[in-house]
Every structure is written in C-alpha cells, then in structure tokens.
Amino acid sequence: MKRLLSLLLAMVAASILSRPVPASEVLYEKQSRYHYISVIESGDVRTLTFRRKGFDRNQSRMDMSDPLRPCLPYYPLMFAGYLFVPEPRRILIVGLGAGVLSRWSAHYFPEATVDSIELDPDVVEVAKKFFGFEQRERQRVFIRDARVQIKIFLRQQTKYDVIMLDAFSGGYIPFQLTTKEFFQECRDILSPQGALVVNLKPGWVIYQYQRRTLATVFPEQYPFGGASGSEVVVALPSKKGITKENLLVAAERPQEERKFSFSLNEVVSQFDIGPGFRAKGDIFTDNHVPANILRQQMENPYGTYKPPQPPFVRIAAWFKAHRLPVISVALVLIIVAIVLRRTGRTRRFEDSKPAEPGSGPT
Predict the structure, then answer these.
(1) What's the pTM?
(2) For the chain: N or C, fewer Cβ within 10 A?
C-alpha cells in the first residue's frame, strides 16, 4: 500500500512537471570570445545562459515586470554580507551577468558606489540591451580580467566594504579566481570591517579546496544555504564570533529601512545549514593546483557526486522522460489501490467470522 501511495505521489508530481509553461523564445544568441551567450524569454522572465560542453547553464534570471523579485534562490543569499556590513559605502561585484546583483545593490543602497568587474564586453552589452542594466556615476563596470582590475585597485589604494564573488562561467569558476593569492588580493582591498561574499557549489569537486583556501586568508567563514544547491559564504578578515541570534537582531533594522523584496530573516534561517569542509588537505595557489581536480572542474564539476532527490521526484522524472500517460496511469493505480484495500477488508472480515458447527478440525 505504501508503494502505491508513493507511485500516486509520483504521478501527481509528474503531472505538475508536465503542465504547459509559457512558450520560450530565444531573443539573442552569439558566440563571444569567452562564451556562447543566449537570452531566453518565457513570459515576463528572461534568462541569460552560457553554453559549455553542450549544456546551457543559467547565469542570471530576471522578471522584467518586477526586477526586484528573486528569480534564483541564491540572489537573497548574496545579501547575507549586508548582515555584517549594514551601511556599505563601496560595493564590488566580480561577475556582472545580467546585472541583477548590481541593480539590487544600487536600489537598496542608493548612497553607495556599486562597481562591477566583467571579463566579456558582450555580456555587458547583453545586460544593457535585454535586462535594462544602466551604468551611472555610482554604478560602474570595469571590463577586464578580475585579477588585473583588482591589482589596479590595489595600486590606487581603493577600498570596498562588501565584495561579492559571483564569477561563474558556463558552469565553472575560472581557476585564477580560486587561489590563495587572489583571496589575499581581495582582502587587501577590503575595508577592515568589510565582508567578502562568495557563491559556491557544495557538491562540486573543488568545493573543499575552495573552502580550505579561503580559510588561509579569512579566519572566519559564515555559510548560508546549501540545501538548494548553492552556498554563499561570508568571509571576514577578523574573528567576531557572531551567532545566529546576533544575525537575527542584525536583520531587523535593514529589513525595515531598506524594504527588501525578500526576507533577511529567511536568509538567516539558512545560516550554517550547508555542509562543512575538511580543514586538512591541499589548497589552491597560483603555482599549484592538483591537475585532476582542475580537469574535473572544467569537464564535470560534480565529479561522481549527484545531488540526492526524493524517490517520488525520480519516479516522476522517469514517467515524464518516457512520455507515459500520467493521468491514465494514476487512475489505474487508484482503482488497483481501492480494489486491494477492499479485498483486504473482505479477508479480515472472513477471518473474523465465527466457525460454523462441525466445520472445525475433527
């Protein structure tokens, strides 16, 4: 009976998955110097993708009718840094994408300067043309490699209160943005009370290396998320010993004053629920990276790891993949369940009837 109920749940899930969705339209496609870029529109929602190894990877997503609505679960998590730095004056974002994080930061912190670094000039043009991104006096974009631009900031003695690292490129993070030297450069342009916010993937082959490498430069790390596939780590240049209760208190004032379109309390609720990391092991440096790890990161970020899924989701996906008539199968299973249940009741009734005289064993 339990198996039948599981199958019924699978049928319901499959029927939901198979419901018609708004027709998708490809608005833009181009092979740039660094990516195969696509912009796909479905209803009011536009998605920026980069293709790698034959797969289109979602980079950014925006509801054009409501640009402040979180369309990807990691967007609110990236604002965890503002729990530690509630009044930033200078914000740096590495990886522009569609400009969602830049737009949100400029909207919620209009008094701050929001700078972004983007390697691909075509990505910047796409953000402007299809996602409404605009450069202003306090919202600038530097088009060059992040390592080069950060070295320029170092020479200029430019400091930032919050630095966001969101430089995914078609499903992987450029190696030069994962090393100890790079994290040290980020720390050097960070204000003493600032925060580095890093978007990571707990299931990826390089996750443990990234966390260990980050720990060599930033003594304190606060992970948020992990359950949805993304984990955002807030790294601080000094130890503060902040607790979840401290963060809940810290969330109250900015939530009330800034009127975020998402709940900072919900962000805090995801504090420290992601997987930990093994402190012992290799780290990434500019001169050393295990070749097999780098190759896996480029070719198959997840390695042999596959994120677990509930059984009914896997069953539903199987039915959908085989294009089985979901509703028909569900009805048949319901009928079978009813028949079996009634048969079971009949048997229990027959077993409970008193034996007739003379029918027992002699």
Answers:
(1) 0.76
(2) C
